[in-house]
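User: Hey, my collaborator sent me this sequence without any context and asked if I could get a structure. I don't really work with proteins. Can you help?
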Amino acid sequence: MRIQEAIVVEGRYDKSALAGVVDTLILDTAGFGVFKDGERLALLRKLAAKRGLIVLTDPDGAGFVIRNYLKGAIPKGQLKHAYVPDVYGKERRKRAPGKEGKLGVEGMPPEVLRNAILRAGATVLDGEAPSRPSGDLTPADLFALGLSGTPDAAQRRAVLLKKLELPEHMSAKALLSALNALYTPDELDELLNG
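Assistant: No problem. I've predicted the 3D structure and written it out in structure-token form, which is a compact way to encode the shape of the chain:
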């Protein structure tokens, strides 16, 4: 299912579970890390302003703390909330259930995740072009721009990340996803050469 909005989840395992369900940019908060990471929050705000943002956190206390933080940090009209039900158990990768004994996003079946996103009011793109071109830039484009695969690529990426006010520790792959979500190729060319 392709949707317009980006989705923010708590961690990388949630991100992996969701990647098989929905075709969009999925970011994580690194758990409570988002509270101290102004760059990550700035990126979430940019994405929310450009294409909307869906918050999908675990149904436990920690998930609601993160959700409420984002609710206060991002304008109301740019944020949608998706909720998964309380299901007791433990994820396969864990030895014991979480503190509250509930499954998180990563433990939910794909159909539950899909329905949660639809109930949140996601904008489904049934074959239409997204409002922001997605996937126009490729890894080869980053190489051609000197942002990957060259001896000074890390330094060039750092300069670009600072200029675009994106998190400084983004990998080339994460940068590519962010660029495709935030800019058209023409807008990026103008930023790089303007």
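In plain terms: Helices lie at 12-19, 38-51, 61-73, 110-119, 139-144, 153-163, 172-182, 185-193. You can pass these tokens on to your collaborator as they are.
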